[in-house]
Amino acid sequence: MTTTAPGSCLGRAPREGARLRLFCFHHAGGGASFFSSWPDRVPFGVDVLPVQLPGREARYREPRFQDAGEVVEALGRDLAPRLDEGPWAAYGHSMGAMVAFALTAARLREGGRPPEALFLGAYAAPYVAPSLPPPDRYDDHELARLLVDLGGLSPRFLGRDDWLRVLLPILRDDLRVCATHHRAGLPDPDDERARLPLHVEAFAGVDDPLVAPGAVRAWGRYVNSFRMTTVPGGHFFPRQAPDPFFDRLSPSLARLLAELSAPPSAPG
Questions:
Q1: Residue 58, class by beta-carbon neighbours within 10 Å (0-12 exposed, 13-18 middle, 19+ buried)?
Q2: I need a labelling partner for 83 at 20 to 30 A (CA). Which of 105, 139, 141, 245 fits?
Q3: 49 near 83, Cβ under 8 Å?
């Protein structure tokens, strides 16, 4: 396997011959491993490329971000060569939805190659209400219990202070990123002229205690093409109920592949 340079947000180079690259952005407190099963669940021809933020998993020695604007700027520098090489799409889950959308908005402002589509899951449109709690609302025990209740943390971690001392600072810094979304360069949802020329498909878990479907639907105010889908499961529905989620995501990816393979229409 060909790997990328140290410090890269991609764990490997894109696969040769793939017709569509799907860049995947993880949730707060998570990492690229959240998407480890995805290559076996998406249509052939889609190359799943999980994006790893620093300070966790393979990049645990690197300093973490605390500011959404800095995240978008760093990812823009790191990913630009890959995003400009060929057709791409993105999926962002929870915090990753905001990051993926802000990164795309920045690339459109700079004249970069746009995605074929964006897929956003389990995150409210930022102008509606915070999807995630402020970084310092809960003490360590309360924050760990919240993660367990959401399905993002195994209950066995509750009795392991040594593990929580590693995990919770990562989560708190990610929550600081979410709290600074206003510095990520998002468009004005009240200005129809600022709507991005993008197709966005948003997913909401019907049992998500953090993010209501209506708050996810509000992403439509940012773009000129939008589709909303509710799926079984809670906040982490790709892991909690993967079959119904991929039953909805995979056909959308297959349509993108078909559009990329279609011959161009004749002029006139």
A1: middle
A2: 245
A3: no
